[in-house]
Amino acid sequence: MRGIVHDAPNINGFANVQLAAGLARALGIDAVFVDRDTVMAAIGEGVAGAAKGVRDYVYVTISTGIGGGLVIGGRLLRGVTNIAGEIGHLPVALEGPRCGCGSYGCVESLAAGRFLAEAYGVDDAARVFAAAAAGEPKAVAIIARAEAALGNLAIILVNGLNPSLIVIGGSVAEHEPAHTIEPMRRAIATRAFRVAADAVRLVPPGLGRDVGMLGAVISVRERLAGRAEWFL
Amino acid sequence: MRGIVHDAPNINGFANVQLAAGLARALGIDAVFVDRDTVMAAIGEGVAGAAKGVRDYVYVTISTGIGGGLVIGGRLLRGVTNIAGEIGHLPVALEGPRCGCGSYGCVESLAAGRFLAEAYGVDDAARVFAAAAAGEPKAVAIIARAEAALGNLAIILVNGLNPSLIVIGGSVAEHEPAHTIEPMRRAIATRAFRVAADAVRLVPPGLGRDVGMLGAVISVRERLAGRAEWFL
Q1: Contact predicate B222/B43, CB 8 Å
Q2: Residue of chain A minimizing CA distance to B149
């Protein structure tokens, strides 16, 4: 299982690729670790970012796609086959367009930048937000659906995992907080269990937009030091 | 926080009740533990039931309501304020009837026995299943929606937590496996990440219909022995 990319929903045909072995050969080095960028970001935030010292948190990225990492009791949740935390592919609707993963209703397929652009028939999510801001009805509906989907994701995280912190990164979240982090906060405040809602904060990443890259550096350093994925 | 019922969505007005203290007084005993029935069931299944020896599993009950317990690395996930695992209140739809918890779109409000009966205007979910089996269109639609909601829940658990086992108990699951566990299996097989889908099994509880009660006995025994909530 290790070092193999089983599936990459947003890269056509990139499946069951022996990436670690290929990179090790091409680069002429021994130790190549392959991991999800969002997991790297989650680790980076825990070791040196907004989640430093926090034992129960979730990292969410809202960008071209949506992904994340779950940290429980100071440990990254991997699951039994390293899929845990694929939060972009949590279904939050009973129907919707086909997702890159083959399913439908995934929060990614309703709220990620690539899918907002596709739904509106443009090549950049920024144009959908601009059209919605100008009151164009189709764009307004697409953004409203994205906000509703992100609200459901936020409640899933809060009622399901009851963390003390949710770190929300990614280019869409960075540029459009009023349509991402704010509707997530509102959904939690109005629809999640009170005791869980009161216990959680939603914040941007402490490591900024390079969180994935910095997280990868931190993660490799931690691995080589034998500290694996316990942060605390 | 301990011993207090903050909220009970299906019992009107039962909020912020000091249940442990009241029971201790009324029964004249010292040690009263208050916990969710579904958490007791999850612990019971882990110590002596279908999940014995399994480190990463989810217990789901589909009954009057829907609830559960999440076990990760052999430990029950509590979250920071003991709400984690409230899987009945994970939103799986962008709209739907008002749930007992005040939200909407919760899988409980779309698929639990009480809400199936309410949606059909009868007093027992069994009548909705019977009407659907006879082809009555409104009942068929309600059950189809419930199956879709349970399918989304199953995928949330598999893509989000990537467990090796999901134990599915509760009276509705017991009586109507073709409308509960089977659509959950189908959703996982067709819509979840392949590597996670292949790693998980869905089974009924090993402790049968008394799983909650047996789990409570087991849980108290474990607590008094100082073993808390580590099973393995």
Answers
A1: yes
A2: A94
**Which residues fall within 8 angstroms of residue B70, CB to CB, at 6 or more apart?**
A160, B42, B58, B76, B77, B84, B85, B87, B161
Which residues from chain B sit within 8 angstroms of residue A103, using beta carbons?
155, 190-192
Q: Do B73 and A75 touch (CB under 8 A)?
A: yes
Q: Rounded to an integer, what distance in angstroms lies between the CA atom of residue B37 and that of residue B213?
A: 8
Interface predicted TM-score (ipTM): 0.93
Residues A231 and A46 sit within 8 Å (Cβ to Cβ)? yes
Structural domains of chain A, ranges and CATH numbers in brackets? 35-224 (3.30.420.40)
Question: What's the predicted TM-score (pTM) here?
Answer: 0.93
The answer to whether the CB atoms of A86 and B195 lie below 8 A apart is no
pLDDT, tens only, B52-71: 999 999 999 999 999 999 99
Task: State pLDDT tens for residues A163-208.
Answer: 999 999 999 999 999 999 999 999 999 999 999 999 999 999 999 8
Per the listing, tokens 């607590």 go with B223
Contact residues on chain A for B72, CB-CB shorter than 8 A: 72, 77
